Amino acid sequence: MTAEERSTMLGTMNVKRLVFKLAIPAIIAMFANALYNLVDTLFVAWDSGEIAIGALAIAFPVQLIILALGLMIGIGSASIFSRAYGRGDQETMKRAVMTALTMTLLISSTLTVLGLVFLEPLLRLFGATASNIGFAQDYLGFIMISLIPYSGGLVLTNLTRAEGRASIAMKSLLIGAIVNIVLDPIFIFPSLLGIQLLDLGVTGAAIATLIAKTLSFAYILYHALSKESALMINLKYIFKIDFKMVGEIFIIGMPTFIRNVLGAVLVIIVNQLINQYAPDDPAIYISIYGVITRLITFLLLPGIGLVQGLQPIVGFNYGAKNIKRLTQSITFSLALITLYFFTMSAITVVFSESFFTIFSRDADAFFIATGGRAFRIISLGFGLIGFQIMMSSIYQAMGYAKRALFIALLRQFILFVPLAFIFSSLFGLDGIWLTFVVADALAGLISVGFYFHQVKQFKLELTTA
Question: What is the pLDDT of residue 122?
Fold first, then answer.
């Protein structure tokens, strides 16, 4: 499909068909991405036991910050690109892409060096204990090295999706997921089916991730450089940066950055509260929380793929001033994502202990029962998360950074932080799990209000057009 044909598709194809066409590859990619994160944790648990899961839980905030960086630049530049694509402004499209790539290279390389230098203090800040910090150091060192290809891949994935090539973005993430899943047992286990393997444990999981991220990035970069792409990348100008556009990318992408960085802060706060309120060794509770975060990612990330498929449609049609088509796509997608999140909540309530059984090498009854109960409590708030994610992403695609930022801050800062300290002081560990439910529900209800307000604004624009 040519760039002109993709432009026609975004502006004229049946809305429901277009949402599925762009969302299904993103959903598959998100599912694959979540799956290999889950497999990492699963193989580490089988090889090194439940305590080793805590190493991944401690490293998780750093991974969220890396994710935040890539998504901030990727979504910010993709929003600019989509709206320029909708009005046929090729110069702005080109500047958005090249500025995004230069920003990614400079920021990610700087953070890699800083992360490696201050690795141990970071881990202690994130809640590492004496029993899991060794595992965490082994894992996080290689994760820091993967920062450049990981963040670069995230940026190009968003830009590739913005030009309507959702299948290329999907294949890139699938390559990373499949490679990681295949390499994990080879690098982690001492042997399998009588075959001698590398026996690197937690370190092996990190090395497998580094290789997978690098291959995924190489694939999408190759296609972004092709003549079929509308991205117009010219590597001769990789260090030519438009500082005015840097500011716009930061402003638009900041809600996503803050949401993911606050996700990292949330993990740090929970780890520290667990250290404070755990009745025994906190390491096992940190491992329980580590499993929960991976399961939440696995269950909910495919739903976020729907939002990623919607964003190019919103950006393009908002840029083209096609309000009727914009409203139809948002309403349809919101119904789908709400149904999905309520379904995941119901599944978790029923199968929470079964999920934890999979992660227990020795069928530890305490680990399974305690983890299953905590996960069941947390899952009660899943149903309304979709409204918050959807509205924040829609405002980003339209360029309304302040509204997107407020909604992004709701759950993970404005509501969660004070509630976590209040509830944990009243109810101990149960208070931590209860905080998730209340923060999710309140943030979701407020986002519902934003949705109805925005629909009213769209109707007003239609009547005055």
Answer: 84
Residue 242 buriedness (CB in 10 A; 0-12 / 13-18 / 19+): middle
User: Residues 155, 79: contact at Cβ < 8 Å?
Assistant: no
Q: Which residues contact 253 (CB under 8 A, 6 or more apart)?
A: 71, 72, 73, 74, 75, 76, 77, 79, 396
What is the reported pLDDT for 300? Answer: 84
| Burial (0-12, 13-18, 19+ Cβ within 10 Å), 29 | buried
Contacts of 419 (CB under 8 A, 6+ apart): 435, 438, 439
What whole-number distance in Å separates Cα of residue 356 and Cα of residue 3? Answer: 47
DSSP letters along 130-163, please? TTTHHHHHHHHHHHHHTHHHHHHHHHHHHHHHHT
| Ranges of the chain whose pLDDT falls below 70 | 1-3, 464-465
Task: List, as own/partner pairs, every contact residues 2-8 make where C-beta atoms lie below 8 angstroms and the sequence separation is at least 24, other chains included.
Answer: 2/228, 3/163, 3/228, 3/229, 3/230, 6/163, 6/164, 6/165, 6/230, 7/85, 7/86, 7/88, 7/164, 7/316
Could you tell me which of 434, 89, 66 has the C-alpha nearest to residue 277? 434
For residue 320, count other CB atoms closer than 10 A to its CB: 18
Listing DSSP states for 236-263 in one string gives: GGTT---HHHHHHHHHHHHHHHHHHHHH
Q: Which residues pair with 191 in a beta bridge?
A: 196
**Residue range 203-262, pLDDT digits in tens:** 999 999 999 999 999 999 999 999 889 898 887 777 778 888 999 999 888 877 887 888
* Beta bridge partner(s), residue 192: 195
The length of the chain is 465
Tokens of 37: 């994160």
Q: What are the boundaries of each domain within the chain?
A: 3-464
